[in-house]
Design goal:
Layout: H1 11-15, H2 34-47
């Protein structure tokens, strides 16, 4: 095999590509508290009562 192929990226280049990075724990956390849900529900409910 020829490892000097110009069409392929090196391992370092692949690992630094944003879409290939491992997720950071907690960064995209979708959990929220019951209080936050209640506040959002109340705000949405009051907006619909016009």
């Amino acid at each position: 095999m020829n490892n000097n192929n110009q069409d392929q990226q090196s391992k370092a280049e692949v690992q630094t590509t944003p879409l290939n990075k491992l997720p950071v724990p907690g960064e995209d956390d979708t959990e929220f508290s019951a209080e936050e849900a209640a506040d959002a529900f109340e705000q949405n409910d009051s907006a619909n009562e016009e």
